[in-house]
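Holo model, zinc ion. Inputs:
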Amino acid sequence: MNCDNSRVYLPAYLDDELGVAESLLVQKHLFRCEDCRRTLDQQQALRTALRDPDLAARPSADFSKRLQAAVRQAAKEEARSQRPSWLETMRFGSFRWIPAAIALVLTVALGWLFVISRMRTSQDQLIARAVLADHIRSLQANHLVDVPSSDRHTVKPWFQGKLDFSPPVPDLSELGWTLIGGRLDYLDGRPVAALIYKRRMHNINVFLWPNHGPADDAIRQEDAQGYQILHWNGAETTYWVVSDLNSAELLQLGRALRGH
Ligand SMILES: [Zn+2]
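Output:
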């Protein structure tokens, strides 16, 4: 079996839908082909990510409450407008639809806000999973650094020509964070810079790429399968930091990278 065949069979292989003979052929190929193993890993990671119940959009209690309040308010307005004297009815009757229209506009606007914030969160959750998968892969595949160096003047220029931006590579050795190199990685549908720092025996992957969205440099912290993930959007750069280091120390690194 060659790679082309193997790629065709992989989804069915993952779903356990192949016969014994085909299954064995795929296994044999996977055993000696690292590329296809990586593809299998990626498909598996994607599948796991998509199964996450958090991805299902459920309105928050707050959103339902606001919606109900808007509808109640509209109903009240309408009831009021149905009680005026015949004169008022003649004057204003034709504008009775206004409260209902306002309620409708409000509902649509609230719904949109909700959908957008939800999309942002789901997107972040997908990235967080990819960040963790990349971190684990970089440790397992023994491919932690493309450019092994503790010198930022070696690491920073190495990215030149490989990325469409120049990543900041701070020297944090005085704070106890040893730079051990850089790596080219792929996240959120684009090539990104990965900086690798070390503290004691812990490797830390710092993924960064240009932030084109709004800046929000409050550091968000997530605990995932024994790993810590930090994320914030600086004015120019989006950061994702991941390690098995304890959360308090990792937060120190986050603040040092953020610069305050
Ligand atoms: Zn292959």
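The two ends are 55 Å apart (CA to CA). Helices lie at 3-14, 20-32, 34-51, 61-81, 86-92, 97-140, 152-158, 247-258.
Archived with the compound record.
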